[in-house]
Specification:
The complex is a heterodimer of chains A (about 500) and B (about 400).
Chain A (H helix, E strand, L loop, with lengths): L1 E5 L8 H7 L12 E5 H22 L9 H13 L3 H8 L7 H21 L3 H20 L3 H10 L9 H14 L10 E5 L4 H5 L4 E3 L2 E5 L3 H22 L1 H4 L3 H15 L15 H7 L3 H13 L4 H14 L3 H12 L5 H7 L1 H7 L14 H5 L12 H4 L2 H11 L3 H12 L3 H13 L10 H13 L33
Chain B lengths: L9 H12 L2 H12 L7 E6 L5 E5 L4 H11 L3 E8 L12 E3 L2 E6 L17 H21 L5 E5 L4 E6 L2 H4 L3 H11 L21 H21 L5 H9 L4 H12 L5 H19 L9 H10 L5 H5 L5 E2 L14 E2 L15 H4 L7 H39 L1
Antiparallel strand pairs in B: 1-2, 1-3, 3-4, 3-8, 5-7, 6-7, 6-9
Classes of the chains: A mainly alpha (about 500), B alpha+beta (about 400).
Bound molecules: iron/sulfur cluster and zinc ion.
The site of iron/sulfur cluster has 15 residues of chain A, from helix 14, helix 19, helix 20, helix 23 and helix 24.
Pfam families (chain B): DNA_primase_S
Family (chain B): Belongs to the eukaryotic-type primase small subunit family.
GO biological process, one term (chain B): DNA replication, synthesis of primer
Chain lengths: ~500, ~400
């Protein structure tokens, strides 16, 4: 990438060349921009794109909207408008290949901003993962809003030529295509044969017919092929960018700007605690200050004297994050586990994991406690009781549990209603209010944040007034903390 | 045959087992092929010694080194890891995983909520049928849908089975790819707090699910009788909780509770109630269009440990390793033969090395068959690898 930063803008490129460079609203960002821009514009473009990417994350996590659903897209575009990012709203609303000056300028900004963020986000594996996941969501959303002719042009511009299967071949498998492809009117569609790993998102959702290692996809499924390519290309270029950081970072102003970019939003990862929490208090904390996901694990451990791997990890890291020391943690797990197994077995099979969580074994990494997003997207299998109860519990079971805790009917009703709509974190926030007899409507996005907010109330830092002031759940603190999420970038 | 296992005898027996019975040659050839184009020495092996001492990052460059290493360390358990860009060693945290068989791990403990004959570490002929179904479904999917050919099925030594796919495409599949294959195969989702773990929606059923159901149907009635899934009120309750439609649920409850215990009879009654109900309520029953299929799947479909499949460097027990607790050999079996396997006919180190043991002869025969099964897979893998390398060479000449 060849971006020269000048104090003042030196040249304005001719519209003519812009038409050639930016023929289409949607780009795959294959070629880096070559032009001079001011530091001011550099900074603005960077911040604006971070805002754009954050609004995608917010739509999914805090608002609980289904990715790529109409409401989801509407929310994002609405956000862009309120934030004054009209050019992004325009690019996202319906991607086209018009050539007005406004179109071209929007694409130019989009192009440059994307490359600036590559520099900011190539630094660590976690940042890369977050960035790739958001850029892919953006790409898919924009592809989905594209109309007929624009799609054709996009394919042509990007040299995507695949030949469709013959009519005979199609009629041989038409029965399977009908069963396995979720599109209406299979009869009139052309089908293409690609390797199964080119359309992993369709494979994992079982939305494509597979035979002999090939996936048979319809024209509109090409978004899967494209986004897979885009993902690979983006991952590679981030790795390359990371190696060349040194060259760009001659300029100190740039360095601090790029480094600060994500930090200003990344918030706390709760990997180290502020205070020490004695394990003797855990039973009472579980009732008063734990979110339901952790309370559930705590109670299960007390009852069954055992937790499966996923539960140990989720709960163990949480405990570390609230301030349980390694020594206490070992003692806590040992005391429970050895009610069923002998000490020797515990020391051999489980103590390692506890130390591992604290970065004392294996790769010695200081692992962060899981965020809500990670917990919500985690795989929960038979025998497991980790995960997020609003997502991973049957409503009936959840209701019984809440009744068992003695909440009043109205509070339970509210929590259940919201859970049914799939707004897990909002339900969690209602639970918070029910426990604390408050009406704060916090935006919960991390179990450890939940704990800290609860502690603030306990210590009197936050006064609880039982008043109806806040209508919906306002976002009190934005914590973009899903960085260590492994699977999130694969979520369709 | 039962009874005389004594873990204390292992240190004496293992060296003999490794020299006389462990198929070292085929084992090395299998790993060599599965590591190519990297050399065999870039593959991680790990040993568990007596007293659970765990040695990671071991490696060998040929059969001779394997023999020496086995004699020197005498591992109670042998695990296989990934292929790295360099010789694996403890110090190298920068080593990169380049390839790894695509693996599946199915363990009967994950069936504890459905099986009624045994729990936890126990297994019997009855619950082995779950493994038979799992093996058949996964094997078909890997071959027919994904086009894989080099598939090795191994008894895990106690209560489950492992599957190793060595095709080049499978070995080099990246982690999103592995995740997608695992998810494609995974139909049962949810933890202890979710009663209904299978949701098939109301649109067309994917071809792979239809095929799985055909396989399940071959065994379903037998399993119903073996396991008596619905014979007690607790078990019946589990079934009822899977029925989302309240009217149907109370109908089923009323009828089944007043019937004799037989699960098969209860199931048949359930089916006819279900059919009547959906016929009468027409379009309103779309929600429960696949209820019968969902129940069959929840009770019989393979329960994978997806994390093992998704992970790149999860160590997995080697074929022909000994299970330290049972003494049983992790034999290689043919998927078509899974249903004929008898658990107590699976060779154990104790009967193999004791001429006077009553099932010595049979265990020896079965051990030979297992080695032959292993050979067959390895030979065809070697062929496939040779073709691939030839094609690769041709490709590079063209460019
Ligand atoms: S929303 Fe977050 S904190 Fe609340 S229960 Fe779910 S995972 Fe836990
Ligand atoms: Zn059994």
């Amino acid at each position: 990438m060849d971006l020269n930063i000048r104090r003042k803008s030196t040249k304005v490129p001719l519209t003519g060349s812009l038409v050639e460079t930016y023929p289409h609203d949607l780009q795959m960002y294959k070629i880096p921009p070559i032009e001079d821009i001011t530091l001011q514009e550099f900074e603005n473009l960077a911040l604006e794109r971070v805002t754009l990417l954050r609004s995608l994350a917010t739509a999914t996590t805090l608002k609980g909207l289904r990715m790529y659903s109409e409401e989801w897209t509407d929310y994002v575009i609405g956000e862009l408008r309120t934030q004054g990012l009209k050019y992004y709203a325009k690019l996202c609303e319906k991607s086209s290949c018009a050539t007005t000056e406004a179109d071209l300028q929007a694409r130019r900004k989009d192009h440059i901003a994307h490359f600036i963020l590559r520099l900011a986000y190539c630094r660590t594996e976690e940042l890369r993962r977050w960035f790739v996941a958001r850029e892919l969501e953006l790409f898919k959303m924009r592809f989905a809003t594209m109309r007929g002719e624009a799609i054709e042009t996009f394919f042509k511009l990007n040299n995507l030529c695949y030949t469709s299967i013959t009519d005979e071949e199609k009629s041989e498998i038409i029965h399977y295509l009908r069963e396995s492809t979720p599109h209406p009117n299979i009869e009139n569609m052309k089908f293409y044969k690609v390797k199964f790993y080119e359309v992993l998102d369709l494979v994992k959702m079982r939305k494509v017919y597979l035979s002999g290692g090939y996936a048979y996809i319809a024209h509109k499924d090409f978004i899967s092929v494209l986004s897979a390519q885009y993902r690979t290309q983006l991952k590679q270029s981030l790795a390359v960018a990371c190696h060349h950081l040194g060259e760009i970072e001659q300029d100190e102003r740039l360095v601090s700007l790029l480094k600060g970019l994500h930090q200003s939003y990344s918030g706390n990862d709760y990997s180290s605690a502020k205070a020490v929490i004695p394990i003797e208090n855990l039973d009472s904390f579980a009732v008063k200050s734990f979110p339901l996901c952790m309370r559930q694990l705590h109670e299960q451990l007390r009852v069954a004297h055992h937790l499966r791997h996923g539960g140990r990890l989720q709960y163990g890291l949480f405990l570390k994050g609230i301030g349980v020391t390694l020594e206490d943690s070992l003692r806590f797990w040992r005391e429970e586990f050895t009610k069923l197994m002998d000490l020797d077995k515990f020391e051999k099979q489980y103590a390692y994991n506890v130390r591992y969580n604290y970065g004392k074994e294996g790769s010695k990494k200081n692992y962060s406690p899981f965020s809500c997003l990670k917990i919500i997207n985690t795989t929960v299998g038979p025998g497991d009781c980790h995960g997020c109860p609003y997502k991973h519990c049957d409503v009936g079971i959840l209701k019984n549990r809440l009744q068992g805790y003695g909440f009043d009917t109205q509070a339970i009703g509210e929590i259940i209603d919201i859970t049914k709509k799939g707004h897990f974190q909002v339900a969690c926030s209602k639970y918070f209010d029910a426990v604390h007899h408050s009406d704060l409507g916090l935006g919960i996005n991390h179990p450890n944040q939940y704990f800290e907010e609860s502690q603030k109330i306990a210590k009197g830092d936050v006064k609880v007034e039982i008043k109806k002031e806040v209508k919906s759940a306002p976002v009190k603190k934005e914590v973009v903390d899903e960085l260590d999420e492994m699977d999130f970038d694969e979520v369709m | 045959m039962v009874g005389h296992y004594d873990e204390n005898m292992l240190p004496e027996m293992l060296p003999i087992y490794y020299t006389r019975l462990f198929p070292q040659n085929i084992f090395c050839r299998w790993l060599t092929c599965g590591s190519s184009p990297q050399p065999l020495s870039n593959r991680e092996l790990s040993f568990t010694l007596a007293d659970d001492v765990y040695l990671r990052y071991l490696s060998i460059s040929n059969q001779k080194e394997l023999q020496t290493l086995l004699q020197k360390k005498c591992p109670h358990k042998l695990d296989i890891g990934a292929v790295y860009n360099t010789k694996p060693s403890i110090g190298r945290h920068d080593a990169v995983v380049l390839s790894r068989e695509l693996v599946f791990d199915i363990d009967l403990t994950d069936y504890d909520e459905v099986r009624t004959c045994c729990q936890e570490a126990k297994v019997c002929e009855k619950c082995w049928k779950f493994m038979v179904i799992a093996c058949e479904i996964i094997d078909k999917t890997l071959k027919e849908d994904f086009g894989f050919q080099s598939i090795l099925w191994v008894f895990s030594g106690r209560r489950g089975i492992h599957c190793w796919v060595s095709d080049y495409e499978a070995r080099t599949l990246d982690s999103p790819g592995r995740g997608a294959v695992a998810d494609y195969l995974c139909l049962i989702m949810g933890g202890d707090n979710q009663n209904k773990k299978v949701h098939l929606g109301s649109d067309n059923l994917h071809s792979s699910i239809r095929r799985a159901l055909t396989i399940i149907d071959k065994y379903f009635e037998q399993l119903l009788q073996d396991q008596e899934f619905f014979s007690t009120s607790d078990r019946l309750d589990k079934l009822l909780k899977m029925i989302p439609d309240e009217t149907l649920r109370s109908q089923v409850q009323k009828n089944l509770e007043s019937m004799p215990d037989s699960s098969l009879e209860r199931w048949k009654t359930f089916l006819s109630l279900y059919e009547n109900y959906t016929r009468e309520s027409g379009n309103n029953s779309r929600k429960i269009r696949y209820l019968v299929e969902e129940i069959k799947i929840q009770y019989c479909y393979p329960r994978l440990d997806v994390n093992v499949t998704k992970g790149f460097n999860h160590l997995l027990k080697s074929p022909f390793s000994i299970h330290p607790k049972t003494g049983k050999v992790s034999v290689v079996f043919k998927p078509s033969n899974a249903k004929n396997m008898k658990l107590d006919e699976i060779p154990s180190i104790y009967s193999l090395l004791d001429d006077s043991a009553p099932d010595n002869a049979q265990h020896e025969t079965n051990m030979r068959t297992a080695v032959k099964n292993f050979q067959e897979v390895v030979f065809s893998l070697e062929k496939a690898e040779a073709i691939r390398r030839k094609n690769d060479a041709n490709m590079s000449i063209e460019f």
